[in-house]
Design goal:
It is built from 20 helices and eleven strands. It is globular, with a radius of gyration of 27 Å. Strands 1, 2, 3, 4, 5 and 6 form a six-stranded parallel beta sheet that branches. It has a five-stranded parallel beta sheet with strand order 8-9-10-7-11, sandwiched between helices. Helix 5 packs parallel to helix 6, helix 15 packs across helix 16 and helix 18 packs across helix 19. It is an alpha/beta fold. Strand 3, helix 6 and strand 4 form a beta-alpha-beta unit.
Length: 429
C-alpha cells in the first residue's frame, strides 16, 4: 500500500472505530441469556466508550436482583467489514435501546444505521427508546447544527443520498423523544444522570422481574387497598409494614402483590422468602449475606451476625430500599436484618410477614402499620375452591352442596382451599 492509499483510508478508519456495532460479543461481558437483551447501547465509541457509556454499562449490569442483559460491543467493526445483520438482530431482540448521542455521533455511519433500525423497531414493535443527549442539544441534533452538525456534514460527501435522508429522519425523530440532556440534568453531574437512567430502565423492565403470585386471587382487594392507602400517605422516614395471621392465610401472597406494585419505584430491592426455614437450615448470616448482595449488588459473605448488622446499617443509609422479609418467627431475625429505622434512607419500606404479632410489637424499628389477615368469608372461599376444583367460578349443580360442605370445614384458609380444590380437579369419584 503506497502513502497516498494510506491517506485515503484514514478517514474511513476514523469513522468506523468506536461505533457501537461489533460482530463478536462476549456473553460474559453482556450478560447474554437465550439470545435476548434487556438494553441495547448505541454510542460513538471514540466519544464515550471509556467514560460515560462505560459507567452507564457497568451500572446497568449491576442493577436489579436479576442481572440485566446489556448489548455493548468491546471491539469496533474491522475496516472494510459490512454492517452485520447480527447487530440489527440484537436491536430487535432488545426491549430498550439507549442512544448516547454525542458530538461526533453523526460522523459514524454505523451509529446512524443502528439509530435508523432502532427507530423502525420503535414504530413496528413495543421497543422503548431512551435517548441521552451527551453534551449536545436536541435542537442541534434535529437541525444538524453546531459541532454535532459539523461532524455530520464533514462526512456527507462520502454517503449515499438515500442513506443521508434516512439518517436525517432518524435524528429528527429521536430529537423529539423524551430523554436526558447531560449538561442540564442535575447541573451536569453525570453520576446523578446515570443513577436516574438506571432507575428508569428498572421501572420499564419491572414486569419481567415481578415476584410470582397465584393467578387465582380472591378476597385480597380490600386488604390491598387499605395497605396501599397507608403507603401513599406522606412520610419523612423509613417505614415498616407488618402483615400477620395464621399459616396458609395468604400473608406472603399479599406481601408479594404489594412488592410488585411498588418495586418500579425503587432501584434497590430484596425479597427474602421463608426466613423461618432459611434460618433453621443456614443461619441468620446466610440471610444477611443475601440481603446485602441484593441491595449492594456485590457478593458479601457474612460470617458473624454483628458484622452483617454493621454492613447493613452503614451501607444502606444512602439507598432507598424496598425489602420483603417473609415469615419472620423470631425477634432476633428482625433485629439482624432490619433492626432500626435509622439504618435506612428516608422513603425506604420494609414489609414483614409473620404468624406472631408479638414479634412486630417487640421490634426496635417500631412497626408503623400492622395488618391482620383473616380467613376468607364463605362467598370468597367458595369462589376460590371452585376455581381450583372445576375450574370456574361456580360449582356444577350436582356438586354445589358438596362444595359448600367442604369449604365449611376449612375456616376460609386459602392454602387449604387451593390444595383440596386442586386435588379434586378432574376426579370422577
Amino acid at each position: 500500500m503506497d502513502k497516498e492509499q494510506r491517506k485515503r483510508k484514514r478517514p474511513e478508519e476514523e469513522s468506523t472505530r468506536g461505533a457501537s456495532s461489533s460482530s463478536s460479543i462476549s456473553p460474559e461481558a453482556t450478560g447474554l441469556r437465550s439470545g435476548q437483551y434487556d438494553v441495547f447501547l448505541n454510542f460513538r465509541g471514540s466519544d464515550t466508550r471509556k467514560t460515560f457509556t462505560d459507567h452507564l454499562y457497568r451500572n446497568l449490569v449491576k442493577a436489579g436482583t436479576v442481572p440485566f442483559c446489556v448489548f455493548r460491543d468491546e471491539n469496533s467493526i474491522p475496516i472494510g467489514e459490512e454492517f452485520g445483520s447480527e447487530i440489527l438482530d440484537a436491536i430487535v431482540r432488545s426491549k430498550i435501546s439507549i442512544p448516547v448521542i454525542s458530538e461526533n455521533y453523526a460522523s459514524s455511519k454505523w451509529c446512524l444505521r443502528e439509530l435508523v433500525h432502532i427507530m423502525e423497531c420503535k414504530k413496528s414493535m413495543q421497543h422503548i427508546v431512551l435517548p441521552i443527549f451527551y453534551k449536545v442539544a436536541p435542537s442541534d441534533v434535529r437541525r444538524l447544527k453546531g459541532n454535532f452538525g459539523n461532524a455530520f456534514h464533514l462526512r456527507r460527501e462520502r454517503y449515499d443520498e438515500k442513506d443521508i435522508q434516512e439518517w436525517q429522519q432518524a435524528l429528527n425523530e429521536v430529537s423529539y423523544l423524551h430523554g436526558w440532556e447531560s449538561d442540564k440534568f442535575e447541573d451536569g453531574h453525570e453520576g446523578e444522570l446515570i443513577e436516574h437512567v438506571v432507575g428508569t430502565v428498572l421501572s420499564k423492565l419491572q414486569e419481567d422481574f415481578q415476584l410470582n403470585v397465584p393467578k387465582q386471587l380472591v378476597g385480597l382487594d380490600d386488604c390491598l387497598k387499605n395497605i396501599m392507602n397507608w403507603i401513599d400517605s406522606p412520610s419523612f422516614s423509613a417505614r415498616m409494614i407488618g402483615i400477620y395471621g395464621m399459616g396458609g392465610i395468604g400473608k406472603t401472597t399479599l406481601a408479594k402483590i404489594i412488592h410488585n406494585q411498588l418495586s418500579n419505584k425503587f432501584v434497590h430491592v430484596s425479597f427474602l422468602p421463608d426466613v423461618r426455614e432459611s434460618t433453621k437450615r443456614h443461619g441468620i448470616t446466610y440471610l444477611q449475606s443475601q440481603l446485602i448482595s441484593d441491595i449492594l449488588q456485590s457478593k458479601n459473605e457474612v460470617s458473624r451476625i454483628d458484622d452483617g448488622i454493621n454492613i447493613i446499617k452503614s451501607r444502606f443509609k444512602g439507598k432507598k430500599v424496598l425489602i420483603l422479609l417473609d415469615d419472620i418467627d423470631d425477634k432476633n431475625q428482625l433485629d439482624a436484618l432490619a433492626g432500626e429505622r435509622n439504618w435506612f434512607m428516608v422513603g425506604s419500606l420494609i414489609i414483614v410477614t409473620t404468624r406472631n404479632e408479638a414479634i412486630l410489637d417487640q421490634s426496635e424499628f417500631e412497626v408503623d402499620y400492622k395488618y391482620e389477615l383473616n380467613g376468607l368469608d364463605k362467598v370468597h372461599a367458595l369462589l376460590l375452591f371452585n376455581r381450583h376444583a372445576f375450574p370456574m367460578d361456580h360449582s356444577p349443580k350436582d356438586f354445589d352442596g358438596i362444595s359448600r360442605d367442604i369449604i365449611s370445614t376449612m375456616g376460609g384458609l386459602p392454602l387449604a382451599l387451593k390444595v383440596v380444590g386442586s386435588y379434586l380437579y378432574k376426579k370422577k369419584e
